[in-house]
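User: Here's a chain of 265 residues. Predict its fold as tokens.
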Amino acid sequence: MTQRARVILNPAAGTDHALTHLAAINERLREWYGPMEIVLTIGDGDCETAARRAVDDGCTHLFIGGGDGTLNEALNGVAAIDGALATTTFGVVPLGTGNDSVQALGMPADLDAALAILLQDKVVDVDLGVVNGRVFANVSGGGFIAEVSEAVTPQMKSIVGRLAYLLGGAQVVIDDGLLDVCLIDAMSTLDFIALLRQVSDGGHIDDPRVRYLRATSLQMEFARAIRVNTDGEVLEASRCDYRILPKAAHFLGADAPFAAADGVS
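Assistant: Prediction complete.
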């Protein structure tokens, strides 16, 4: 198959300075991948649409410039086309505020270091999680975690993402074919805040209200629709069906295996 590459960049990623890096990204990637087609997104859903169009246009490599939500849209755009995940290689260009998915994938958050790794052209197969038909590369958390994630500032998103993994979510980044699941008993807001304070010293591990398990699939039903945060994207659902897609996505990465996160909270 002839190699064809495209950059999909979210100009609003991070502190809205993504466009200032575009020339450098284009120049570096062209060194290895040749002529680079560039698409800029404007609003929600644009990256998903652009990723689908890239597959239809015969692109084999997609370089995603943005944060967790941008990457999540791109993955779902490709996954919407039968067989496209198997023929598409993703390169993550970290431009977001938190870049939790980037770090979970074992990639450096520093732009220059990440571009250097992308130029090595080494492909690593990574597990994906699925919840209600939507794929995710890093973590999905519901309930209080998702409510908070919609209210916090962009600078707080990184912290919320890590807490979702530690205290109430499913993660997909060990590449072992399993979801890492964290369940938290219902409690008051004050009790939950107190529990969060235990995270820094690992005290939450021994808390009887916090349970960890691993599974290939998981079904949850709720008395009402709740918000569910999946790699930064928020949906509402009264039932969540989680499953794992082993080695379903192909990412450009370093020699060392990715430290993937298989998670559900």
